[in-house]
Design goal:
A: about 250 residues, alpha/beta, Rossmann fold, 2 domains, four-stranded parallel sheet, 8 strands, globular, B: about 475 residues, six-stranded parallel sheet, 23 helices, elongated, iron-sulfur (chain B), 4 iron, 4 sulfur cluster binding (chain B)
Chain lengths: ~250, ~475
C-alpha cells in the first residue's frame, strides 16, 4: 500500500510541523508514504472565487500528480473535500480523476476507515482539556461528525479517535459546530465580519475551560490562532495529529 | 424599498461597529435556530420529511407548465379570476387595475415578500391608494419607511425600545412604555380600524394546490383572515413556483414550514382560500418576474424549491452578524444570495461572496436546496463577467499561474516566510488580514518541502554510511 502524502500549500509553508506529524504518524503505523514534490495548490481558492479555468487546471494537475498512489492522505478536511466533492464541477469527465476520487482521504478518515486504527503506534498521555473545533467542510461535506442541523444519530470522528489518547478531557463549545469565519478568501473579502465570527468562536471555545482548541483543519486553527495572539488569550490551537503522534503541545 | 447599491462587506463592517447591538442581533436570531432544532428533534421522520418535500417540489418544477395550467383551470372553475404577470411591473399594473376599477382607496395587505420584490406599495401609493401592511412586523417597518430585514421576522433588527419610540410617534402610545403586550395591543387597535375601513385585501400565497385551484396562506396573527373576510375584494399574489400538485402533499410542507421558520409546530392559522366570499371577488395574480429564467438554469433551478421559511437566515453566521440590510437584494441571507445574483449579477454580485461556505444553510433547508454551493456557482458567473475587484482578479490569475509552476510557488512561499517577519508591524496593521484584529501566523524557517528534502538527504547519508 503506497500512500501519496498531500500537503496543502498553506500547510507546507505555515504549518510544516503538522505535515511532519502526519508523515510520522503514517510511517509509524507501517505505511509506505511518498511525498511528491511537484504538488502545489488543489485549486480551492480559485474555485471559490469563480476562476473555473484555474480550478480546472489545478484539478488536472492534482490528478496527474497523485493518480499513481493507492491512497492519497492529507491533514486538511477542507482541501480533501474540495478534491472529493467539487472536482466534479471541473473534470467529471476525466476517468483518471474518477479512479482517484475514492482513494483520497482526510487523515482521520484514513486512520479510522482504512487502517481501522484501534490503538496508537505509541501510547500517548495528554492530560489536558481540549475543545473540539469541527471545521465546516470536514463536518458537512466529509461527515466528520453529525452536523447540529441534521436530525441524525450523533457521532464524531475526532471525539472517537481521542478516546485512544490517555488523560485527555474532551469538551464541546456552545453552538457546537458554528463556523470560525475563515472561509478561504472570505477572511479578506469581509475582514470585519470574518474576525467577528472568529472572536465569537474563540470565546466559546475558551468558555469551556479548555487549554486547547483541537481540530483537523489547519486553516480554521490558523484563523483562530491569529485572533488568540492578537487578543493575548491563553487557549492554543492544536491540530489533532500533533496529539496523536505524542508531540502534543510541544510542537 | 431597499437600497440596492449596498455592498455586503462595507455594510457588514458598518453594522459591526456597534458590537453590542450586533451581538444582540446574533443571539436573538440564534435563539430561533435553537427553537427550530428543538422542534425538528421531536419528529423522528424529520429528515424523511425534508427528502419528501424536496422530491415533491423537484417533481412539480419538472412539470410546472402542466401544473400551472391545471391550477388555473381549477381556480377558474371555483369562480376565481386568474391573472398572469410576466414581471414586477405587470403585476403592479394588474393589481392597480383591479383596485382602480373598483374605486379602492385603501388596501390592507398581509405578509408578502413577492409584493416587496415587485415594489407594489410605492406603486400604489403613487397612484393614490393607501396601503396598510397588517402583519405586525411588516407594519413596524412600514411605519419606519424601511424594508423588512428578514423574510419571516421583518422587524427582527429592532429592539422593543425602538418600537416603543416608533409607536409613541406614530400611534400615540405612552412615551417610554416598552411592554410588548401593551405595544401589541396598541398596534392591534390601530390595525382593526384599517381592517374595518379597507376596500380590498391582498395576501401572499404559501402554497397553491393544482388539484383544487385553492391557495393556502400561513400566518400567526390572523391578519390574512381579517383582511380577506372584511373587505369584499381579495387579491392573492403568488410567484409561479408556489404550486404543489395535490392537497395531500400540503401536510409535508406545513409540518416543515413553521418548525423551520420559527420553531413552532404549526402556524396559528393555515387558511385555505378557494373562492370569494358571497358577494365578493377573488383574484389570483401569478407572477414570473425572472423565475422562468432561473427554472431554465441548470445550476440554479433548485432555488425555486424555496418555501420562504427563513431558516437559512437564522442559521447563517454571516446573516446573524450583518443583518438583512447588509444585503442589496430584498431577500437577504443564503437564499437571497442565490436569488439576487440570479436576478442581477451586477447589482447583487457581492452577496454571492458574503459567505464562508460553511454549508449550515443547506443542512437546515427543509427542501434541501444546495444553497452554499449555489453561491460558489454564482461566483463563477461573477468571474466570467469580470465583476471581481481588479486587485483580487490579478491575485487569482497569479495564483492560477503559480499553481501550475510549483517551483515558483515554493519560491513565493519562501519569500513570504522570510520577508513577513522583518517588515514593521505598522505596514501590515492595515492589511485585510490584520485590520480587524488578527495577527499573522508565525513564519516557520523552513517549509515542509524543505524539511522533507533534508530528511530524505539525512536518510540517504545514513544509509550511505552503513
Amino acid at each position: 500500500m503506497k500512500i501519496g502524502l498531500f500537503i496543502p500549500c498553506f500547510i507546507n509553508e505555515l504549518f510544516p510541523h503538522v505535515a511532519m506529524a502526519t508523515l510520522e504518524l503514517l510511517e509509524s503505523l507501517g505505511c509506505e508514504v511518498a511525498f511528491p514534490m511537484e504538488q502545489s495548490c488543489c485549486g480551492q481558492p480559485l474555485a471559490n472565487n469563480g476562476d473555473s479555468k484555474g480550478a480546472c487546471e489545478a484539478a488536472r494537475r492534482f490528478t496527474g500528480v497523485f493518480q499513481q498512489y493507492d491512497y492519497v492522505v492529507a491533514p486538511s478536511g477542507s482541501c480533501v473535500s474540495h478534491v472529493t466533492h467539487h472536482y466534479d464541477w471541473y473534470i467529471a469527465e476525466d476517468p483518471a480523476y474518477q479512479q482517484l476520487k475514492p482513494k483520497v482521504y482526510e487523515i482521520i478518515e484514513f486512520l479510522q476507515d482504512v487502517l481501522k486504527l484501534e490503538k496508537l503506534p505509541k501510547p500517548v498521555y495528554f492530560p489536558h482539556k481540549v475543545s473540539i473545533h469541527q471545521s465546516c467542510h470536514g463536518l458537512r461535506e466529509l461527515h466528520h461528525a453529525s452536523p447540529s442541523e441534521l436530525m441524525i444519530p450523533y457521532q464524531s470522528r475526532l471525539e472517537n479517535i481521542l478516546k485512544l489518547v490517555d488523560g485527555v478531557e474532551v469538551l464541546l463549545p456552545e453552538r457546537r459546530d458554528e463556523c470560525c469565519g475563515f472561509g478561504g478568501t472570505f477572511c479578506v473579502d469581509e475582514p470585519e465580519l470574518s474576525t467577528a465570527m472568529g472572536e465569537d468562536r474563540v470565546a466559546q471555545h475558551e468558555a469551556t475551560g479548555a487549554e486547547y482548541i483541537v481540530g483537523a483543519d489547519p486553516s480554521c486553527l490558523m484563523h483562530m490562532g491569529g485572533i488568540i495572539r492578537h487578543q493575548g488569550r491563553r487557549i492554543r490551537p492544536l491540530h489533532i495529529v500533533e496529539i496523536l503522534t505524542g508531540r502534543g503541545a510541544g510542537a | 424599498m431597499k437600497d440596492d447599491s449596498v455592498k455586503h462587506p462595507q455594510a457588514a463592517a458598518e453594522f459591526l461597529k456597534d458590537r453590542a447591538q450586533a451581538k444582540w442581533h446574533d443571539s436573538a436570531i440564534w435563539w430561533v435556530r435553537q427553537k427550530r432544532d428543538a422542534q425538528a428533534k421531536q419528529l423522528p421522520e424529520w429528515e424523511e420529511l425534508r427528502r419528501l418535500a424536496r422530491e415533491i417540489k423537484a417533481h412539480t418544477l419538472s412539470q410546472l407548465d402542466d401544473y400551472l395550467a391545471q391550477f388555473e383551470a381549477n381556480a377558474q372553475n371555483n369562480g376565481v379570476t386568474v391573472h398572469w404577470a410576466a414581471d414586477a411591473d405587470e403585476h403592479n399594473r394588474i393589481v392597480h387595475g383591479i383596485l382602480a376599477a373598483r374605486q379602492v382607496k385603501k388596501l390592507v395587505k398581509s405578509k408578502s415578500m413577492l409584493t416587496e420584490e415587485c415594489g407594489l406599495n410605492p406603486y400604489l401609493e403613487q397612484r393614490g391608494i393607501e396601503v396598510v401592511d397588517t402583519d405586525l412586523g411588516e407594519r413596524i417597518v412600514q411605519l419606519r419607511h424601511e424594508a423588512p430585514s428578514h423574510i419571516v421576522m421583518p422587524a427582527i433588527h429592532l429592539k422593543k425600545e425602538q418600537i416603543s419610540e416608533l409607536f409613541h410617534k406614530e400611534l400615540g402610545t405612552e412615551a417610554g412604555n416598552n411592554d410588548p403586550t401593551y405595544l401589541t395591543h396598541a398596534a392591534r387597535a390601530n390595525l382593526r380600524e384599517h381592517f374595518l375601513t379597507a376596500d380590498a385585501g391582498l395576501t401572499g400565497v404559501n402554497f397553491a394546490i393544482a388539484e383544487t385551484g385553492g391557495v393556502v396562506v400561513c400566518t400567526n396573527e390572523g391578519n390574512a383572515d381579517l383582511g380577506t373576510s372584511l373587505p369584499p375584494i381579495h387579491i392573492a399574489s403568488m410567484g409561479l413556483e408556489k404550486i404543489i400538485p395535490r392537497l395531500e402533499h400540503l401536510g409535508v410542507f406545513t409540518r416543515l414550514l413553521a418548525r423551520s421558520a420559527i420553531g413552532s409546530p404549526v402556524t396559528t392559522y393555515t387558511s385555505h382560500f378557494h373562492q370569494a366570499r358571497p358577494g365578493g371577488e377573488m383574484h389570483i395574480v401569478i407572477v414570473d418576474n425572472g423565475r422562468s429564467d432561473i427554472l431554465g438554469n441548470e445550476d440554479f433551478y433548485q432555488s425555486l424549491r424555496c418555501i420562504r421559511c427563513g431558516a437559512c437566515m437564522n442559521t447563517c453566521p454571516v446573516y446573524r452578524r450583518s443583518s438583512g440590510f447588509s444585503y442589496s437584494y430584498i431577500i437577504p441571507g443564503p437564499i437571497g444570495s442565490t436569488l439576487g445574483p440570479s436576478r442581477d449579477m451586477k447589482k447583487h454580485g457581492s452577496m454571492a461572496f458574503a459567505c464562508s461556505t460553511c454549508g449550515s444553510c443547506s443542512n437546515v433547508c427543509p427542501v434541501k436546496i444546495n444553497l452554499h454551493e449555489q453561491l460558489v456557482l454564482h461566483r463563477k458567473k461573477a468571474f466570467e463577467q469580470n465583476l471581481l475587484p481588479a486587485g483580487k482578479k490579478m491575485g487569482l490569475l497569479a495564483m492560477r499561474f503559480l499553481t501550475q509552476h510549483p517551483a515558483l510557488f515554493d519560491l513565493g512561499g519562501k519569500v513570504m516566510r522570510k520577508v513577513v517577519p522583518i517588515i514593521p508591524e505598522s505596514l501590515t496593521r492595515h492589511s485585510a488580514w490584520s485590520r480587524a484584529g488578527r495577527d499573522l501566523p508565525p513564519m516557520p524557517a523552513q517549509s515542509f518541502k524543505e524539511l522533507y528534502q533534508q530528511r530524505s538527504q539525512d536518510k540517504q547519508d545514513k544509509e550511505g554510511q552503513q
